[in-house]
Structure formats: structure tokens, C-alpha cells
């Protein structure tokens, strides 16, 4: 029985890994690879900035997340039916880029296709998160969210790194075909996925939309969402926003900046995500949160030479790698607690609205950090960022001590079907 349970848990984690990696392949290509290709083709920086605007679709996906919780096929699986369409749409959107072998000369259609891809990817993320909420027990949530965060970096690494190398050596068509083929792996995984029958379907669309607000009524959710999350994300995000301009100010070329920040430091981030996910199961959410906060403090100190205008290659890469690893550890903890607060009957909506708020905080943090640095300098902003993260860690530890046992108190063992108790935000074993 234990062997069957372990295989079942591994299968679920494998499915989630494929979904999360493939959703970020195109995102990595658009934000890193396509940006480099267009710049090489003579596209202005102002126009490239407009391309990044399509990324704003991602944090507003909570607006349509309730639709996915409300509607779905009983025959083919509630969320599986969405994933089949969305994953197939991702492949088709990438294939639609094939005719534009000189993307800089046909920027309008290329940006439109990219916007469609981001919309499909953001919606696929809602469905994938809902599946994760329903399949992962409290014991495996840390591992699942470690995989989710690590997968985002792996997708960026493949989409923004490997596909650009293929483009440089073999051209546009082979690069796009590789991207589409890798994304199609996720479609095959979804096709073979057998979603457990759903017995807690939301009865009305209005009820699904009420979940956007009712999720904050759970014990401690407002404290977590509006105190812990902003402190950590604004602090860490403001510090990270300093990296690229500081590297440019220190004399690094744009090519080196892109290679290091888009590819090289993704490797320690991937490893940190996986380690943090497994560490949560062993040391708890508070323990890993403290480790992440301490690591971010140390790595910010290591970044001080860069922030003061000195950026030797080896030392800077090590400092950036440590910083991204620490940032990733914090991300995994925040995502895991967000999933603790996600109720099975409205998992797509709950997890999406909670994670979207954190994403908005990150966007705001970048603006705050850069504006503040223009007035007081990079080092002062870095120190303030560390103080904010430390305050967030303290608040997070207090939150866990007080509320952890009251958040989705399910003790569903792996392999046992979970049945939601409507309106209660808890599950029981069937």
C-alpha cells in the first residue's frame, strides 16, 4: 500500500512538473529570447518596453479564475478539460510564430500572438494551480510548490536560453519548432492524466466570484496576505530591481547582463526551489522562511560591492546566485502558505487571487526601489529592503505559530480522496 501511495504521489508531482515547466517555456522565450532577437534586429528599447506590457495580463488572471472553478467537463475531468484546450492552444500559438522569420519587420502580428500566448499561459496556470490544490496534501504542498517555482526558472532557462542558442545557430524556424515540441510534452501529459472525479463543483458563477473575497475571511489570511506578503515581496523585489541598472552602471555589456541574469543564476534558483520544497516537509514553513530571510540578508551584503559600482565577474555571479536562491526559497514558502489558504472547491480562484496580490507587490516594489535609489543610492535601498524582509519573516513566523493549525486543517493522506466541506475551507477523508 505504501509503495502504491508513493507511486501515486510521484505521478501527481510529475504531472504538475510538466504543466509548470511548459507554461513558462514561451514566457521565457518572450521576455528573454525574443527580446534579444528583436534587439539584434534593430528594434528600439522603447518598443521592447511595450512588448513587456503583455506581461501585465498575468497578474489580472484572477478576474476569470472563478470561471474555471465553476465550469468544466464531468466526463473528461473538470480541470483536465480546460488543460487540454489551453495546453493545445499554447502549442498552436507558438506554431503561429513560424511565418515571421524576421520578427523585427512584422512586430504587430508578433506582439499580438505573444499577447494571446500570455493569456493562454496565465489561464493554464489557474487550472494547473487548481489541480495542485486538490491533489497535494498538507505534507506534499511544500514539495509541489518547490517544483512550481523551480519549474518557472527551468522554463525560462530553456525558453530564454536554449531556444536562443538554437536560433543563433540554426535560425528562427528550428527555434520555434523546438519551443512548440517541448510545450507539446505538457499536452501529452495532460492527455494521460486522469483527474479524480469532482463532487464539490461550485453551484453558481456568483458563488465562484464571491470566493475572490471570502478567501480572506479564513483565520489569519488577511494578516498573511496584507502584512507578511507585502513586507517580503516589496523588500526582496526592491532589492532585485537594483541589479540590472547596477550592472549596467558598473560597465557590464547588455549581452553579459542578459546571460548572467537570464541564464546563469537560474541554475541555483532551480536547486533552491527544489530544496526549499522538500525542506518545508521536514522543517516546516516557519523554519524555511527563517532560512530564506537569513540567506537573503547575507546575499544582499555580498551584493554591496556591485551596488557601490564594483562588479568583478566571479564575485558578482556568486552574489547574484546566492540572492536568487534566497529569493526563491522565500517564494516557495509564500506559495505554500497561499496553497494552505486555497479551498478545494475554489482552488483556482483562491490560489490565483493570493498569488496575484504577491505579483502586484513585486511590480510595485520594482518601481519603489528604483525611484528610491535615484534619491538615496543603491546601498541605502538594499539596507531598507533587508529590514523589510526581516520584518516580514518575523510576522510570518508569528502567523504560523498562531494560525498554522487552523488553515485548511486537512490531514488527507496521499492517495485518499479529499471531499470539500462547502463554505468551511476544510476537507475530510472520504
From TrEMBL:
<dbReference type="GO" id="GO:0022857">
    <property type="term" value="F:transmembrane transporter activity"/>
</dbReference>
<dbReference type="Pfam" id="PF07690">
    <property type="entry name" value="MFS_1"/>
</dbReference>
<keyword id="KW-1133">Transmembrane helix</keyword>
<keyword id="KW-0813">Transport</keyword>
<protein>
    <submittedName>
        <fullName>MFS transporter</fullName>
    </submittedName>
</protein>
<dbReference type="InterPro" id="IPR036259">
    <property type="entry name" value="MFS_trans_sf"/>
</dbReference>
<dbReference type="InterPro" id="IPR011701">
    <property type="entry name" value="MFS"/>
</dbReference>
<keyword id="KW-0472">Membrane</keyword>
<keyword id="KW-0812">Transmembrane</keyword>
<dbReference type="GO" id="GO:0016020">
    <property type="term" value="C:membrane"/>
</dbReference>
<dbReference type="InterPro" id="IPR004752">
    <property type="entry name" value="AmpG_permease/AT-1"/>
</dbReference>
